[in-house]
Amino acid sequence: MEFINPAYQELLARHRLLDFNAFWSLPEDWYEEPNNRRRGWSGVSIHRLPLAEEALALFVKRQENHNFRSPTHPGGRPTFYKEFRQLLALKQRQITTPPLVYYGERRRHGRRQAVLATIALAGYCSLDAWLADKSIPAGEKSDRLEKIGRQIRKLHDHRFQHRALYGKHLLVNRELPADAGGLAFIDLEKTRRWPLMTARLRASDLAQLLRHSPALSGGFDRDLLRGYCHDRPPWEEKLLVRIEERLARKNRRRPPGEGSTAGQDAATPKAPG
Ligand SMILES: Nc1ncnc2c1ncn2[C@@H]1O[C@H](COP(=O)(O)OP(=O)(O)O)[C@@H](O)[C@H]1O
Ligand SMILES: [Mg+2]
Q1: 187 lines ligand 1 (CB under 6 A)
Q2: Residue 199 sits in a domain of what CATH number?
Q3: 24-48 pLDDT, tens digit each
Q4: Whose CA is nearest to atom 6 of ligand 1?
Q5: For ligand 1, is residue 238 a contact (CB within 6 Å)?
Q6: Quick check: is 271 in a domain?
C-alpha cells in the first residue's frame, strides 16, 4: 500500500520522490544508528528539499523486516504502519505531530520493507535539549511545562497512550511564547488507543517520562503534573500514587549509583492557585 499526502504531491514530484523506490534509494546517512532486531532493521535519515519555496527537510524512516503481529495482521506488518495510522489519528484530533508526507510498504525477496516520511519540524527541539538550555529562565520553563502537562493530558484524554514517552520524543516549539505550549509528539510506533483510559495507563506514560528526564526532578515535574491535573480530576490522587509506585519500583530495580531521577517528590504536585 502507499499513501502520498496530496498537499505535498507537487513538491515531491519536483524532487522525483513519487514512489517507494525513490524513497528507499535515498542516501543512507543515518541520523541515528539504525536499530537492529532479529533479522530486521529500522533507520532514520534527514533529507533537505532544495526546491521548496522555504527551507524544508524530510525525516525519512526506513525499515526492513521490523514487524509486529496482531490478530488483524497475523502475517506481520511493519511497525511504521502503526505509526502511519497514529499520525493520521492524532492529526484528526488536533494533537500536534509532524506533517505526514509519505507512507509506503512492499515485499522484496520475502522481506517486508516500509518507508515513512514526515516534515522536519523547524524551530523545535527535544524536551531534553530544551530542559538543558541554561539560557531559558526557570520561570519560563515552569510556565511552559504546565502547558506541556496539559497537552499530554489531551493525548491521554483521547485515550492514546504513547508508550515511548521520553524527552527525545517530545518536541518543543522554541519560537512560541511559553504560554502557548507548542508541543509535538513523535515516534508513535508503540502508541496505542485504548477503549478506556485508566489512571494506570496514564501513570505508565508519565512515570516513563519523569524517570528518563532527570532534568524534570526537583520542581519541573510538579509543574508538568499540575498542568496535567489542572482541573483536579477525580482520579488525580490515584494517578499520583501510581506514578510514585512506578518510580519507586523502577528505582529499586536499578543498581545503586546509577543516577536515580525524579523519584521522591515527583508525585506531590503543588496545590493549584
Ligand atoms: N519530523 C521530525 N521533526 C524533527 N525531528 C524528528 C522528526 N522525526 C524524527 N526526528 C528526530 O529523529 C529521531 C529518530 O526518530 P524516531 O521517530 O524517534 O525514530 P526511531 O523509531 O528510530 O526511534 C527523533 O528522536 C528526533 O530527534
Ligand atoms: Mg525514537
Answers
A1: yes
A2: 1.10.510.10
A3: 999 999 999 999 987 899 999 999 9
A4: 120
A5: no
A6: no
